[in-house]
UniProtKB/TrEMBL annotation:
Top-level taxonomic group: Bacteria
Name of the protein this chain belongs to: ABC transporter substrate-binding protein
Domain Solute-binding protein family: 75-413
InterPro entries: Peptide/Ni-bd, SBP_5, SBP_5_dom
Coiled-coil parts of chain: none
PANTHER family, sorted: MONOACYL PHOSPHATIDYLINOSITOL TETRAMANNOSIDE-BINDING PROTEIN LPQW-RELATED, PERIPLASMIC BINDING COMPONENT OF ABC TRANSPORTER
Taxonomic source organism: Saccharothrix xinjiangensis
């Protein structure tokens, strides 16, 4: 029961006005602190080697060597420039005058320490799946070498999972503590388990000083509670406002952005009924994505034509129709377990619609819904026949290859469907080796087509991020990649 307390207590917190330091009492510009309601609590103690890294990034407390612009191009971060010195090596010049939040200086040795810790982590950060990477410190630079030619090393180093922290952040037992060890405009000063986090402005920041005095974070898995927090003044910013709550908010407080996130039905190819390609095809044919977009998302999503959606316009422009698809086989009452998680408010409703359509097609369906923290391990272990996941497709490097590798290759670290297909592995590998530009995009689409032909994953829709900002908030980030939220420029009127 203990792990469920943050979820259970949220309505009571809202009712009592005790939300993350009672922002209703200090929501004005006098204090200048941003009150933030976030979707998911930390899963791994805010370790940057996990998906918790994106919280550190969205709070502008941990920074990377490289950043990405709106078009996904690599731009300077803690590295001021870089050059390719051989087929497998890149040299990054480290920015001078940068101080970690603990008062130590950013040096090439500190960068190398982070990268070596990341490569030795178990599990590895997802961005390093299938990557043999070493780092060597020079006087003012770091040389990064990969086992194979990798044209996207700068993009890879933009991943929040490779944020550079002070050396004292890393314990000998593999744990990482980001409290007071980042370089960003906000210093993480306290974390209260899975309930709250507190950040203060860092006056020694190397860049533009933060305009807000700090950030008070509350983790609020309940979507209704997050939306209510903005309506009531309990929060200034709420991420991932559920579609069902959007209509209840003042339109002036809502921003809707197409994002590289796909709602996908993963089918277990390791065991159970979906070992049969014909039954996977039957499941694919049973799904009515348009029904889900209209009914569950109230039109605030896009029907999927593939794994990659409208946030990547080149995918829609270059994708060819799939031919030679497996013919559906009659389910004949095949019993399957369909699972999803409750943290994203729409997913249980999506699961109900999918269950109905699968039953109409002849399957016998049992549904399982839990919070993500309590279902991920079972999903990765293949204990469900089908799993509905809302999945970011370019979260790590601004490039879909990392997603395709982790989710659909034999050695992928997030392979929910258990897919292990030599043709898929070969094409994903080819995409990873291709140079940036048109050739790489064509290779990515070929790999996507190979995955779709297996029917191990049935893409249903592409989500749009709906963010709630109080009218007092100025310059919060609306980031399709969900890397940035509160920046140095974000403040209250």
């Amino acid at each position: 029961m203990r792990a469920l307390l943050p979820f259970v207590l949220v309505p009571a917190l809202l009712a009592s006005g005790c939300f993350a330091g009672d922002p209703a009492a200090d929501a004005g510009p006098g204090d200048g602190r941003i009150k933030l309601a976030m979707l998911q609590p930390p899963r791994s103690g805010l370790s940057p080697f996990s998906d918790d890294a994106f919280k550190l990034s969205r709070w502008s407390t941990a920074e990377t060597l490289v950043t990405l612009d709106a078009d996904g191009n690599a731009r300077p971060g803690l590295a001021t420039d870089w050059q390719r010195t051989s087929d497998r090596s890149w040299e990054f010049t480290i920015r001078g005058g940068v101080t970690f939040h603990d008062g130590t200086a950013l040096t090439p040795a500190a960068v190398v320490n982070t990268l070596r810790r990341a490569t030795a982590a178990s599990p590895k950060p997802r961005i390093l799946d299938g990557v043999d990477l070493t780092a060597e410190a020079r006087e003012n630079s770091v040389v990064v070498t990969t086992g194979e030619q990798d044209p996207l090393v700068p993009h890879r180093l933009s991943s929040p999972q490779l944020a550079i922290l002070a050396e004292r952040a890393y314990a000998d037992d593999g744990r990482v503590d980001p409290v007071g060890t980042g370089t960003g405009p906000f210093r993480l000063v306290a974390v209260n388990g899975t309930t709250t986090a507190t950040l203060d402005r860092f006056d020694g920041y190397w860049g533009e000083e933060a305009r807000a005095a700090g950030i008070d974070v509350s983790f609020v898995p309940d979507g209704t509670a997050r939306a209510a927090a903005v309506r009531s003044g309990e929060a200034h910013i709420a991420e991932a406002v559920p579609v069902s709550q959007a209509a209840l908010l003042d339109p002036a407080t809502l921003t809707e952005v197409p994002m590289p996130r796909t709602n996908t039905l993963y089918l277990n190819t390791r065991s159970g009924p979906f070992l049969d390609a014909g039954l996977r095809a039957a499941a694919r044919e049973a799904i009515d994505a348009d029904e889900i977009v209209r009914g569950v998302y109230e039109g605030r999503a896009d029907v999927a034509e593939g794994l990659l959606g409208p946030a990547l316009p080149w995918a829609a422009e270059g994708r060819a129709p799939l031919a030679d698809r497996t013919a559906p086989a009659p389910p004949n009452g095949a019993a399957i377990t369909l699972a999803t998680f409750s943290d994203r408010a729409e997913l249980p409703e999506v699961a109900s619609v999918v269950q109905q359509r699968l039953e109409d097609a002849g399957f016998t369906v049992t549904q399982v819904v839990r919070e993500y923290a309590h279902i991920e391990q079972d999903a990765l272990a293949g204990r469900f026949d089908a799993f509905i996941l809302s999945r970011a497709t370019v979260l790590d490097s601004g490039d879909p290859v990392a997603y395709l590798r982790s989710d659909f290759t034999c050695d992928g670290s997030f392979n929910l469907s258990g897919l292990c297909d030599p043709a898929v592995d070969e094409l994903v590998g080819a995409a990873g080796r291709a140079e940036a530009g048109e050739a790489r995009r064509a290779a990515i689409l070929a790999a996507e087509a190979a995955v779709l032909r297996t029917d191990a994953a049935v893409p249903m829709l592409h989500e749009r991020v709906i963010q709630g900002d109080a009218t007092s908030v100025v310059d919060s980030a609306k980031d399709p990649r969900e890397r940035v939220l509160v920046t140095a420029a974000t403040h209250l009127r």
